[in-house]
Amino acid sequence: MLMAQILIKIKRKAKYLPKFLKVVWTAVTQKKILVPIDPEYKDLKALYHALSLAGRIQAKVFILLFRQLGKPHQIDNWVEDVLMDVIHGACEEGLLVSYQIADDGFEDEVFRLVESEHIDLIVVSAEIGPIKDILQRIIPQMSTQIIQVRGKDKATDLFE
């Protein structure tokens, strides 16, 4: 029997399953969203959009903060404080959030997260910057969907 058929049968009987099997079912089917953030642009529209989407579809959100070595971290500290407040609020609402910092090798870190965590969607800001440039370079090598958030509740495919 195929794995998908087994999972469908489990889902149909999910209300009768022991708790540990329900946890396994959730882990297998849960969507995962990656939000890369560049602290220089101070734009968190993509994060708010991703958290809103995650709340609707019960997805887990991975936040990846990009910090370039050799640059002053004064802005980073402000952004990190705001991120921690946003993450705390999201967790209080029952969302699952993972927060990581990439000091260097941002491109490698995006690849690692997409592959190891099986990321389904990457949400980025429409602002021009190093994150958007990196994603434009590596998008042909990934099968993950990428959307960009332009303004309030406006999201489009990155390369329309």
How would you sum up this structure, described in words?
The protein is of the alpha/beta class and 160 residues long. The chain has six helices and six strands; from the N terminus they run H-H-E-H-E-H-E-H-E-H-E-E. It has helices at 3-12, 19-29, 45-57, 74-92, 106-117, 130-138; strands spanning 32-37, 60-66, 96-102, 121-125, 145-151, 154-157. It has a six-stranded mixed β-sheet with strand order 3-2-1-4-5-6, sandwiched between helices. Helix 6 (130-138) links the parallel strand 4 (121-125) and strand 5 (145-151). The longest helix has 19 residues, at 74-92. The chain is globular and about 35 Å long. The model is unreliable at 1-14, 21-26 and 155-160 (pLDDT under 50).
Structure summary:
With 160 residues, this protein is of the alpha/beta class.
Overall geometric form: globular
| Nearest-integer average pLDDT | 76
Please tell me how large the radius of gyration is. 17 Å
The major pleated sheet works out as: 6 strands, mixed
Fraction in beta strands: 15-25%
Residues in helices, as a percent range: 40-55%
Supply the helix-strand structural class: alpha/beta
Low-confidence stretches: 1-14, 21-26, 155-160
Number of E-type strands: 6
Instruction: Sketch the topology as an H/E string, one letter per element.
Output: HHEHEHEHEHEE
Note the main attributes of this structure.
single chain; 160 residues; alpha/beta; six-stranded mixed beta sheet; 6 helices; 6 strands; 46% helix; globular; disordered C terminus
Secondary-structure map with pairings?
Layout: H1 3-12, H2 19-29, E1 32-37, H3 45-57, E2 60-66, H4 74-92, E3 96-102, H5 106-117, E4 121-125, H6 130-138, E5 145-151, E6 154-157
Parallel strand pairs: 1-2, 1-4, 2-3, 4-5
Antiparallel strand pairs: 5-6
